User: Fold this.
Amino acid sequence: MSEEVTYADLKFQDSTKTENTKRLDKFGKKVPPVPSRVWRQTTWTLSLLCLLLLVGLVVLGIMFYLTLKIEMGKLNKLQNIEEELQRNVSVQLLNNRNSSEKIRSLSIALQNVATQLCRELCRKDPEHKCKPCPESWIWHKDRCYLLSDYYLTWQESDMFCSAQNASLLTMRSESELEFIKSKNLFDYWLGLFPRKDNKLPEKIENLVFPSARFIRNTGDLKNMYCGYIYQTYVYYTSCRARKKFLCQKMANPSLNIESILTSDFPDGGM
Assistant:
């Protein structure tokens, strides 16, 4: 009985050694245990998930590429439309500019014709309604002139002209000088600087200035001398003396063309 037990134990031990020997490879290293069934299933599952994820990424990449291509096509179309609109706007602006220049040139030409026609009408009727100057004022070039027969001091004359939105005469051009000389004026105040000394007479040609020399805020004029025109000379006398005066101001730049067209034309015209 004991011999059987001993044999069985030996056999079990030998089988154990044999199994351990099988687990060693030919180099004497221990061979890892064979994977279990659950591990293999897990590996296959993870591999499948990775494959599905890769396929999903490829599909998303293709969809993104196609969408991007479509949107880029739309963007190019919008850019082409925008460029076309810009070209159309540029052409329209250029046409408008050319039209504006033509209208401006036509307006200037019409204004010149109206001015010439109005001058002819005023030559026949000095108080014609087309005249760009107030009633009783003389129209010359782009200015209006008022020859007053009132006798006032220099300061009173200045105040009177100022009330008419005008100023005492100061000649600014040769054309204006010739116009004033043609009126053959005697004893009319001018809008020159009041002086502290009584200057000798001088020719009116020496007092033509491109810009006005006149300043209204002159202060006390009790002992000052002011200039006045006497034919073709300018004299100086006390500013408190009384003389006639000549006011000037800019003419109305816009003639009433309608009043010209509806007027009776001279010499049997229209």
Observations:
- The two ends are 163 Å apart (CA to CA).
- Residues 1-8, 265-270 have pLDDT under 50 and may be disordered.
- Residues 140-250 form a domain with the Mannose-Binding Protein A; Chain A fold (CATH 3.10.100.10).
- The longest strand covers residues 143-152.
